[in-house]
Amino acid sequence: MVIFLVILTLVGASYAGGVSGIKNGLLAIITGILFDYLVMYLMNRPWHFPDGALITGIIVGGILSPATPWFYVMMTTIIALLSKHLLKDKRRPLLNPAAVGLFISAILFSTGESWWIGLSMIPSWCAIIMILFGMFIASRINKLPLVFAFLATYMIFFLIAGILNSAGAGDVLRTPYINAALFLSFFMLTDPPTSPAKYREQILFGCIVSMVSCAAFLLVSRLTYLFIGLFISNLLKLAASKMNRAPIHGAARR
């Protein structure tokens, strides 16, 4: 996962001005790692390399616009990791940390998003690299049904919306929106702690998160619509796990 994200970062930054994106990415990574080490120190936890903070930093830095000021990059990363430590069920985060940080940053600081790690700033054929990496990752963690359900519903929804002449519906099948949807489906929606494991649930959740995202694009925000859908998926996964852990009445009485 880390290797693929680093490669996508380097390829995605090959456009003119990509150095700014690399700088923001490195800043987000360093901020994330130092913040997690600080949490380990304050909470008196065993020391280990915070690979989760590394991945969160790469994603945050790669989605934010390269023109984002450095202090907003740091704030977004800290908010993301705070959500990981505060919003959790046992030891697992309730929501995707990077998505939380980016969503709140967009609302509070009006930070822009370019999804350049999704290769949105370079020729469109380069998205094949992301698709191959994403397919490999999703296959290894058994999340392909989730990805396919999300993307199929996404395409069908906006195809119908385009036929009905919904405002802006045609834009989502072009750069950078399609790159954002592909990156999110492969590298964020499939996050094991916040996504379902059973194939049937993956298909159901993929369809639901896609429909919520699409509706949010048309009705709420073209900046945060994917995160809104992702949060719904995370919460559905939490609800499903709670139901699976609930004791059967007969067993509870025994």
TrEMBL record:
UniProt keyword annotations, A-Z: Flavoprotein, FMN, Membrane, Phosphoprotein, Translocase, Transmembrane, Transmembrane helix, Transport
InterPro entries associated with the record: NqrB/RnfD
Residue spans crossing the bilayer: 26-43, 48-64, 94-110, 116-137, 144-164, 176-191, 203-228
Top-level taxon of the source organism: Bacteria
Protein's recorded name: RnfABCDGE type electron transport complex subunit D
Organism: Sporolactobacillus mangiferae
